[in-house]
Amino acid sequence: MSTITKEVQDSISPDKALEMLKEGNQRFLDNNELKRDLHFQVNITSEGQFPYAVVLSCIDSRVPVELVFDQGVGDIFSARVAGNIINEDILGSIEYACGVAGSKAILVLGHTKCGAVTSACKGVELGNITALLSKVKPAIADVQQRDGEVKVEEVTKANVFQSIKEIRENSSILADLERDGKIKIVGAVYHVEDGQVSYL
């Protein structure tokens, strides 16, 4: 598998970028990952990078993004923060990925059994974690209003949608790119139980 070049990146549509992520996860599930020379990719990408997508995911050690989507060096941007929440730094990172570096898709990836979401649902408060977990509260409120109770896995899904909403509302750069059909913003949940990614 060769490294993504500028020409290849330019030829990839937003739909194709998402399809490539789906195909990669299927290879991961099938234990049929592509054979790569990672050292060669390190050398090739030393002069520049042209990732086709950016994935915003949780820091959870069970969700190694490049592995679960079977991607190589230079293929995708990976933005990670507990609870896959949006803040100014994450938003700026995604703007760079799409607005400057040319990525074609944004995937907001939550995951089952998320410690950050579980802690937010339990009202955990501890140092800087308190402020971080407060960003999950809109998703908790949404699920509670809809279901009458707080279900962690439903909050996980709602939190993905909340992050997508905040990307669109707080970044005119990304909203304009999406409106013009230059990128797509989608959400999904990774299942730590079996490695499958389910799109929302």
How would you describe the overall organization of this protein?
The longest helix is centred in the C-terminal third of the chain and has 19 residues. With 200 residues, the chain is α/β, with parallel strands linked by helices. The chain contains 10 helices and 5 strands; from the N terminus they run H-H-H-E-H-E-H-E-H-H-H-H-H-E-E. The protein is globular, with a radius of gyration of 17 Å. Strands 2-1-3-4-5 form a 5-stranded mixed sheet, with helices on both faces. Helix content is 49%, strand content 14%. It has a single domain, classed as Carbonic anhydrase (Beta-carbonic Anhydrase, Chain A, 3-Layer(aba) Sandwich), CATH 3.40.1050.
Summarize the structure.
With 200 residues, this protein is an alpha/beta fold. It has ten helices and five strands, in the order H-H-H-E-H-E-H-E-H-H-H-H-H-E-E.
User: How are the strands ordered across the major sheet?
Assistant: 2-1-3-4-5
Give the DSSP E fraction (strand runs of 2 or more residues). 5-15%
Oligomer: single chain
What is the CATH homologous superfamily assignment? Carbonic anhydrase
Mean pLDDT: 96
Number of helices: 10
CATH class: Alpha Beta
Q: Give the N-terminus to C-terminus distance in angstroms.
A: 29 Å
CATH architecture: 3-Layer(aba) Sandwich
Helical proportion, percent range: 40-55%
Uncertain segments: none
Stated plainly, the CATH topology is called: Beta-carbonic Anhydrase, Chain A
Task: Identify the overall geometry.
Answer: globular
What's the alpha carbon Rg, rounded to whole Å? 17 Å
**Structural class of the secondary structure composition?**
alpha/beta
Number of domains: 1
- DSSP, total strands: 5
Main sheet attributes: strand count, strand direction, barrel closure? 5 strands, mixed
Write the element-wise H/E pattern from the N-terminal end onward: HHHEHEHEHHHHHEE
